[in-house]
Specification:
single chain, 161 residues, alpha/beta, 6 helices, 6 strands, 14% strand
Length: 161
């Protein structure tokens, strides 16, 4: 099963769903596709199971069961996939399409890709090629830097107290 997640943004991200649907229509994607679509839950597909939001326990189960996670460039979703040893393909929501307020997801995806953790979907017409690459992709084991970040943040806060 392929899990597609669009996060909880109030902005639409139909481009990613259209890219997935295109690959289903071409016969490239044959697996079941489950989508956590958020504000794009009105997207029409006879091939994908589309939900607006999924309860956390069900979401965790889907993450655990999926063979591939295709997602927006949100850090939380990417790291959840990596923490569960999933192959992740990430696509940035872009300001020019009204999908976000700026293009920070490009930087997020670029950094995770550069470190060897995920694959980036830059050209939505080439989703099939990126999925094919994912079959052989061995993601680097993700190591969170949260502990060091939290320590640094605490020092800064404590310096003002």
């Amino acid at each position: 099963m392929i899990l597609v997640t669009l996060g909880t943004q109030d902005k639409k991200f139909y481009r990613l769903l259209e890219a997935v649907q295109k690959q289903i229509d071409k016969g490239y994607i044959k697996e079941e596709v489950v989508v956590q679509a958020g504000s794009c839950a009105d997207f029409k597909s006879n091939n994908m199971k589309i939900f607006d939001l999924i309860p956390m326990d069900e979401y965790d189960k889907l993450i655990n069961e999926c063979s591939l996670l295709i997602t927006h460039g949100g850090v939380g979703t990417i790291t959840t996939g990596l923490d569960n040893n999933k192959k992740v393909i990430a696509a940035a929501r872009l300001e020019k399409y009204g999908e976000h307020i700026n293009d920070h997801q490009l930087q997020i995806i670029e950094n995770f890709t550069k470190e060897g953790y995920i694959l980036s979907l830059d050209n939505f017409d080439e989703l099939d090629l990126v999925i094919e690459k994912a079959k052989k992709f061995k993601p680097k084991k993700y190591k969170s830097n949260s502990i060091n970040f939290n320590k640094s943040l605490k020092k800064i806060i404590d310096s003002y107290l």
